[in-house]
Amino acid sequence: MRYLSKLLDFEGKHLAGLDHLRALAIILVFLCHYRAYERPEWVEVIGSFGWVGVDLFFVLSGYLIGYQLLRYLQLNQVIDFKHFYISRTLRILPAYFLVVTLYFMFPVLRERGGIAPFWQFITFTQNFNLDFGNEGSFSHAWSLCIEEQFYLLLPLTLTLIAQKGYLNKGMYILLFLFAASMVVRAISWYYFMAPFYFHDILDGRFVAYNKWVYYPTYNRLDGLLVGVGIAALMVFRPGLRDRLAAYGNQLFFAGCAVIIVAYFFLSKDRLDLLPTLFGYPLIAVGFGLMVLGALYPTCFLYHLRWKISTLIAALSYGIYLCHKFLNHLLQGPLQELGIPAESNWRLLICAIVSVLGALLMHRFIEYPFLQWRNVLLRRRRTIRKVKEAWSSK
Fold first, then answer.
1. R_g of the chain, CA atoms, integer Å
2. Per-residue pLDDT tens over the stretch 320-370
3. Of 134, 187, 206, 293, whose CB is crowded by the most CB atoms within 10 A?
4. How confident is the model over 212-257, as pLDDT tens digits?
């Protein structure tokens, strides 16, 4: 009962708006990847743009981690690195390493045959030089690698900025990094993709784009930076934060409008230069406005406490890890049972099994490590308080 209470947030501790957005993100990703199989026609309509679910995850991560670190920095003038890295390690790594191990121990799980080298998964560098054409299995770990690199570097970067006395210039630094990422992405496109367009070469274009433009960290900072920017606004700009509080719905729907613009902007050929240069910023800003709006009680999402969204949000990490190999394993048995490949029933079964797989992983892997994490961090706080009490005598 205690487990279900935490999983479904019976105490109402979660920000419901962010739960809805996290659930939306994993649904978009799931539909995007389900396009690898025969599917209902409507899946193509949504799933062809479903890759933006990863960008929504980036904005959410940027905000949640950024807020945690910036708030701690504001209150204590320093970041507790050990606390932060223990927290992130025990939250992320157990389930991730389990799935990596399964992929390498049981090749039958591999949805696309080839897979990147093991060392790249355990060093979180798989998103560099990733050849989707030959290493497509568990390729979606690229975004997890970016997030791990973000978790590693953000505390160090914020500490350096604080030590140099530049926190009051944080927004300018974020804007500079945002623009720099666009410039680097444009350079990557010109260097690796321009020959495909200048010579009208279609063969290998998508694989090359993913490898050199889409996957590398330095090209995908938009969403994370927008998320950190929202966190900085909430922590260091209380006046603006409070003025925006009256416009939760307006911010959210403005974000939706930006995403719609991005959808049409990217619908023709998202691999071309202009979509590559401006599409990702549009998506990041659109989702950023939606996240910012959802933080305020004046947004309708803030008050919608749907347990289905809470459940999917809580399991979103596990679903992300396991949905591709579970979908792959289910296709044969479902075909033998006579369930049509393009039917909604097959899609629904795959979705339910992915949720159940994530639930099992959460209950028996993630949750025990989270409990251990809480014990370790409580013990650290107690020891620190005792030391402070003794030193004050």
1. 22
2. 999 999 999 999 999 999 999 999 999 999 999 999 999 999 999 999 999
3. 293
4. 999 999 999 999 999 999 999 999 999 999 999 999 999 999 999 9
- CA-to-CA dists, residue 99 to 25, 38, 321, 327, 380, angstroms: 20, 25, 7, 15, 30
Q: What angle do CA 145, 319, 86 make, to 5 degrees?
A: 50
Q: What is the mean pLDDT of residues 175-182?
A: 96
CA distances from 323 to 148, 281, 303, 330 (A): 20, 28, 29, 10
Q: What is the pLDDT of residue 147?
A: 98
- Beta carbons of 337 and 34 less than 8 angstroms apart: no
Quote the CA–CA distance of 39 and 330 in Å, as a whole number: 14
And the tokens for 275? 């979509």
What is the four-CA torsion angle of 135, 137, 143, 144, rounded to 10 degrees?
-120
pTM as predicted: 0.96
- Minimal CA–CA distance to 251: which of 302, 303, 286? 286
Number of domains the chain contains? 1
Which residues span the domain enclosing 309?
2-391
> Quick one: which of 19, 25, 22, 65 has its CA closest to 303?
19
- At 77, the pLDDT band (50, 70, 90 cuts) reads confident
| Axis-axis angle for helices 307-336, 81-105 (nearest 10) | 10
- Give the pair of three-digit tokens for residue 298: 């004046």
Rounded Cα–Cα distance for residues 55 and 24 (Å): 12
